[in-house]
Specification:
With 249 residues, the protein is mainly α. The protein has one domain: Creatininase (Rossmann fold). It is 43% helix and 7% strand. It contains eight helices and three strands, in the order αβααβαβαααα. It has a three-stranded parallel beta sheet, sandwiched between helices. Strand 2 (103-108), helix 4 and strand 3 (141-146) form a beta-alpha-beta unit. It is globular. It binds nickel (II) ion. Residues 31, 39-40, 110, 168, 173 line the site of nickel (II) ion. Nickel (II) ion is lined by residues 31, 39-40, 110, 168, 173.
Length: 249
């Protein structure tokens, strides 16, 4: 069940069955020469939408612009400052809590989001700890899960791409988007075949070190078929992980 395609009476009825929701969260940022700008938002969205079709799970709108300051030297990238992102996550959460949601599972597709999401959780819990929550409402239970860290998924990605998986514009994430949107595939020769690796600071530093945007990857290996294998494994893993979260102490 997708929040965006539901009516309010349907959401009210869902809340009588479950107090949990999955919110996909990603980024709008360059993903190398053949990767889609929306990759980090599309990957968790594709997996979560399939999960919602297979189980009685409500999936919220995708939080699709994240913390991507280091990608801003490439056209099309968009970013929130960490402080803006933290405030927006707190407002999204407060909106859901207002309606009775008690367990909010943020399903993430972007490494740069991990710190702001964690800090947002601390902000939300601090409101409760300082007794400043609205109407003294108990703090919601919050969970952050990166899609590539679902049980079994990292192993599967390494099995499919033993060489050139990399850490940005990875062969696996590009495959997942090609499975979801085969019409958006781009055939590009990679040069060098496998991109360099290393650390970065701001956008100019990033582009100097990683001129085509990739880090450590060869995403020319990506295909819809490989993406399908990853998604078909990730969907039951997500359903199981979310179900466990719903009953966790
Ligand atoms: Ni990515």
């Amino acid at each position: 069940m997708l929040l965006q395609l539901s009516s309010w009476p349907e959401v009210e009825a869902y809340l009588s069955r479950s107090k949990g929701i999955i919110v996909p969260i990603g980024s709008t940022e360059q993903h190398g020469p053949n990767g889609l700008i929306g990759t980090d938002a599309l990957c968790p969205e594709i997996i979560a939408h399939q999960a919602a079709a297979q189980a009685d799970i409500l999936v919220g709108p995708t939080f699709n612009v994240g913390m991507a300051q280091h990608h801003m030297a490439f056209p099309g990238s968009m970013t929130l400052r960490p402080s803006t992102m933290i405030a927006a996550i707190a407002d999204w959460t407060a909106s859901l809590v207002r309606h009775g949601f008690e367990r909010i599972y943020w399903f993430n597709g972007h490494g740069g989001n991990i710190q702001p999401i964690g800090t947002a959780f601390s902000e939300i819990y601090a409101m409760s700890s300082l007794r400043q929550a609205q109407g003294n409402q108990a703090a919601p239970r919050l969970s952050l899960r990166n899609w590539w860290e679902l049980p079994g998924i990292g192993e599967l990605c390494r099995e499919i791409f033993p060489v050139g998986e990399g850490s940005h514009a990875t062969a696996s994430e590009v495959s997942v988007t090609y499975y979801g949107y085969p019409q958006a595939q781009k055939l590009v020769e990679m040069s060098p075949k496998i991109a360099p690796t290393g650390f970065f600071r701001d956008a100019d530093d990033y582009r100097r070190k990683f001129p085509d945007g990739r880090i450590g990857s060869d995403p020319s290996q990506a295909s819809p078929e490989k993406g399908e294998r990853i998604v078909k494994a990730a969907v039951p893993a997500l359903i199981a992980d979310f179900t466990a979260f719903l009953s966790a102490a």
